[in-house]
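User: My collaborator sent over this chain with a note saying "see what the structure looks like." That's all I know about it. Can you take a look?
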Amino acid sequence: MVNKAMSMFKPAFAVALLCAAQQVFAILPIEQWRTSSGAKVLFVANRDLPMLDVSVDFPAGSGYDTREKAGVAAMTNGMLRLGADGLGEDDIARRFADIGAVLGGRFDSDRAGLSLRTLSDPRQRGPALDLLTRILRAPEFPAAVLSREKARQIGALKEADLKPDSQAGRLFYQLAFRNHPYALRSVGEVDTVGGMTREDLLAFYRQHYVAERAVVAIMGDVSRAEAGAIAEQLTRGLQRSAAAAAALPPVAPLEGAITRVVAHPAAQSHILIGAPGIRRSDPDYFPLFVGNHILGGGGFVSRINEEVRQKRGLAYSAYSYFSPQQAPGPFVIGMQTRRDQADEALAVVRKTLRDFVSDGPTEKELLAAKQNIVGGFPMRIDSNRKIHEYLAVIGFYGLPLSYLDDFVANVERVTVADIRAAFARHVDPDRLVTVVVGADKDQTVTAPAAR
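Assistant: Without extra context I'll predict from the sequence alone. Here is the result:
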């Protein structure tokens, strides 16, 4: 039903949606400045609800781990709220609950931080921000709590190592990113977690959670002056560093194709295909975003799903995505299929990808994708929480402040030629990693790229 409705969109209706989306954001301009300690601040005022969303992020994700200490970044971030400035984890949780505030965390390969959602009334806002400030400024990483968290994490890792989907993901990143930190499992390995010390966490915190590299995103029912005071409060007590942030190393392109088949008793084969993709700042972002919607990111209307699921019934779902990061993140095609169908499913996906890279989408496919994306855009910015997340991304990756204003126009201007050229630049069907977990025996096949 949804697909039929989307196919009936007319160009005039798409234009109306474009205008509506622009009007939604036009009343919410982004303001940006630096605090006295050097932190970057992005702010959007919205007086419609008595709510405040705040986050503070740092370049402190798992990409800043080393192979010997994999998982330290994640453990550091996770333990920030488990004891700080004389408060135990129960004290922190109880105080936030008493004022109806919610403390959250954010962690991925590039960034790490904390978020807060609270009522904007100073009687609730003030204590909530005070608590967040104390947590950011003076985490304690209690030894007893660390010991407990290490045991919990080691148990989770051992359990994950038995699951075919976890095995596939871990192996895919190892083969696609090799010596790059993106190849490391973000939560670490059993031996690296077991060897972690409180001093490791303190050292990571002191190196990466510094004021000059902080990105503060504020969204909600406060004035510009109040937002300025909040940002100053949250970052004033952070450590300072004159040194530039550690740069992530470059991601080396794959030299050829590699297929790794792993024996596992699972009834289904878990399959991942892909390679390093693009940076978040890559000028090909929108052609690849729209193109991937057609290839495998558009759900049941995408080519991969159509060929694998609809026509042949080889998998319940098959998908693709780009994950742009500070350094080129992964391009991934994924699916699950019966063990006896794995070879056929792989052949279908590889041909579908090769045809798409060679020829690009049709004009009809492109129009449908644009209508789908444009029609869904207002829902991307229909709440404070969603806009706040965009603020954090815009600030961290240095995207234009007009990113949301320009989003629909950037989608609309993508052409078939743009998509074909962008995929040709970034996706080489002869240089892909293929991982299959769920087979009778292990197998490794390597092949140099075609000349």
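A starting point for your reply to your collaborator: The chain has two domains: 2-23+250-448, 35-236.
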